[in-house]
């Protein structure tokens, strides 16, 4: 694995789920404490509840996690032990989408691209600025599990990333009032990152299911044509809606748009979601030269696009939004799944080309 050049350094974690969690908690104890404070305020702003009430809500998801991914409870216990906090605090962080995002959602613009035998996956993660310094890059070598990289938030077991089997996943939040049976969003993302192949990863959405609506952009380095494959999955507690590649491309922002969804749910997107999706489509389908050689820099240029600001792909501070919903791009990630390489820019991708690069064996 190559060494990072970004100020955000990679956290190396090895061993059983509990050992991985305990080291995560020990190393990032102060960031976890800050994450708890951030989400305490966020729960108040978004849904009008205090941290103690959020803890009570999180407890309802423990049984579903025990049913669908019991080993990850050991890791959350380890994080709590290492950080010196209560297990329920870590459970609450990992169920934050189910607690808050049924009422409000962040941004995020994501795409997959298959070109010249290479499968790419990329996105901006847009969220509240006060969580910027709590972003962590976890490199996990678990006993008997695929080596993986997850870019996410301190105290949480998974988010956006890839594994050494060439499986990768991105996330778009969806605002909806639906929440049912299945795995919480961030638990499901980690289970995907531990999947040894595309079919196993797909089964997380189609078999385990996901409690609340979100979009998972799932891709793999290996497909039927040995050149990669991808699918957009508008996950929920029912059968997910699917978005197949068009000219090797899948795009998504923060609204539901899959055709013929077996179990449709209602979403409540903000006004910036549709313009960002249209701009992504224009950049990838109309402006990207078909025979041009792709690299990380060219894809970060797409993620740095400001057309239509403040409703742009690269999100900056917008004073016209309500204070509690001002979202900014906090990190950008580009993954070459075929070469098992992930490149991260911490902060807005337009402001620096200083990157953390990880290549899995």
From TrEMBL:
Boundaries of every Peptidase C45 hydrolase domain copy: 117-349
Taxonomic lineage of the native organism: Bacteria, Pseudomonadati, Pseudomonadota, Gammaproteobacteria, Oceanospirillales
Protein name in UniProt: Peptidase C45 acyl-coenzyme A--6-aminopenicillanic acid acyl-transferase
InterPro entries: C45_proenzyme-like, Peptidase_C45, Peptidase_C45_hydrolase
Species of provenance: Billgrantia zhangzhouensis
Gene3D superfamilies linked to this entry: 1.10.10.2120, Penicillin V Acylase, Chain A (3.60.60.10)
């Amino acid at each position: 694995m190559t060494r990072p050049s970004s100020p955000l350094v990679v956290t190396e974690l090895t061993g059983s789920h509990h050992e991985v969690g305990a080291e995560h908690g020990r190393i990032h104890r102060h960031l976890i404490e800050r994450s708890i404070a951030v989400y305490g305020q966020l729960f108040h702003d978004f849904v009008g509840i205090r941290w103690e009430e959020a803890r009570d809500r999180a407890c309802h998801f423990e049984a579903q996690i025990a049913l669908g991914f019991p080993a990850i409870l050991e890791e959350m216990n380890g994080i709590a032990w290492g950080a010196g906090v209560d297990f329920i605090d870590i459970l609450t962080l990992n169920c934050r989408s189910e607690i808050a995002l049924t009422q409000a959602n962040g941004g995020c613009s994501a795409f997959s691209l298959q070109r010249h035998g290479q499968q790419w996956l990329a996105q901006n993660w847009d969220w509240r600025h006060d969580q910027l310094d709590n972003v962590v890059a976890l490199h996990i070598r678990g006993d008997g599990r695929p080596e993986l990289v997850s870019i996410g938030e301190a105290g949480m077991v998974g988010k956006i990333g890839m594994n050494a089997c060439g499986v990768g996943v991105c996330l778009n939040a969806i605002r909806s009032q639906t929440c049912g049976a299945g795995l919480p969003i961030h638990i499901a993302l980690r289970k995907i990152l531990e999947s040894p192949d595309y079919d196993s990863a797909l089964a997380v959405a189609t078999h385990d299911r996901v409690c609340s609506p979100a979009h998972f952009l799932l891709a793999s380095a290996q497909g039927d044509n040995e050149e990669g494959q991808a699918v957009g999955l508008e996950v929920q507690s029912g059968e997910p809606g699917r978005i197949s590649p068009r000219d090797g491309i899948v795009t998504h922002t923060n609204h539901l748009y899959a055709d013929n969804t077996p179990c449709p749910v209602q979403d409540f997107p903000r006004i910036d979601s549709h313009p960002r999706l249209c701009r992504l489509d224009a950049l990838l389908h109309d402006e990207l030269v078909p025979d041009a050689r792709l690299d990380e820099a060219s894809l970060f240029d797409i993620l740095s696009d400001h057309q239509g600001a403040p409703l742009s792909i690269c999100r900056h501070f917008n004073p016209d939004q309500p204070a509690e919903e001002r979202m900014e791009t906090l990190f950008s990630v580009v993954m070459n799944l075929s070469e098992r390489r992930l490149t991260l820019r911490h902060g807005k991708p337009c402001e620096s080309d200083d990157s953390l690069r990880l290549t899995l064996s």
